[in-house]
Amino acid sequence: MLILLLPLTTICVALAGFYVWHRQLIRKRLFEVAEAGLSAFSHAEAAVAYARRPIHEAGEGSSRKRAADELPAHSELRDRLYAPLERLRHHNDAFGELERAAFNVEVHFGDEVARHLREPLRAYNRIAVVTSCRMSHTELPAPGQVSSGMVRWWESVVYASGTKCGDYSEGGSREVDQLSIDMARAKAAIETTLRPYLDAPTFGEFLFPPELVRAIRRVGSGDGHPQVNANVCEEPQRPRQRAIPHIAPTFRSATS
Predict the structure, then answer these.
(1) How far apart are CA 140 and CA 51, in angstroms?
(2) Which domain holds residue 159?
(3) What would the pLDDT profile of 162-171 be if each residue is shown by its tens digit?
(4) pTM of the predicted structure, to 2 decimals
(5) How far is Cα 78 from Cα 225, in angstroms, rounded to an integer?
(6) Which residue of 131, 150, 156, 246 has the fewest C-beta atoms within 10 A of its own C-beta?
(7) Is 249 exposed, middle or buried, given 0-12, 13-18 or 19+ CB atoms closer than 10 A?
(8) How many domains is the chain partitioned into structurally?
(9) Of 92, 85, 108, 102, nearest to 38 (Cα)?
(10) Which is nearest to 186 in space by CA: 239, 91, 111, 120?
């Protein structure tokens, strides 16, 4: 009897060891992807916050291409407008790292998490477009310039607000810092999804991950199988047609 149980015990131990090794490999990979995603997002977020400072230092904006007939007064103004985009371009490596991390997060955690992770990249593009609009606005004559409300909206995108709800403009209306709000929402969603994978799991969570437990519960409760309506497989009944009464034709003679 013991001779028969020995091979079965060996097989069970081998299967258990393979399962533990497989779980350890998956957990390690998820840890690496989550750590890289959180780190890349933090670096890109810090780069966006640094670029949106409303302070202009001497020498900033000098890396842009200048026109041959550009006046010194216009050069100083355009340098000031170009400074936020120049700060972002100094951190192109951080945004490239974020894009690579977003691809891995998309594979392991889904499209929704990757979309939140790419929020600093969308902020980069919005600042670049608004900076181009602001620099082009200085070249327009007075009749072709945009309204003051549009200029304030451009400034709310390029420069960070002093409060969470925005700063008051000269007219008394509050300019909402939507870019900071979107960044905060994306950060909260990423922290909720990726942060748990950086913590050491318990023995039960390691052997039986929450995803496996939820799948077993769905199968046990019958929710894992789609419910099919019995009437779907039946042939649809045709509507009854009203019987048309048969009326015999009557003929009258020509003489009547």
Answers:
(1) 26
(2) 10-63+73-138+149-211
(3) 554 445 455 5
(4) 0.67
(5) 62
(6) 246
(7) exposed
(8) 1
(9) 102
(10) 120
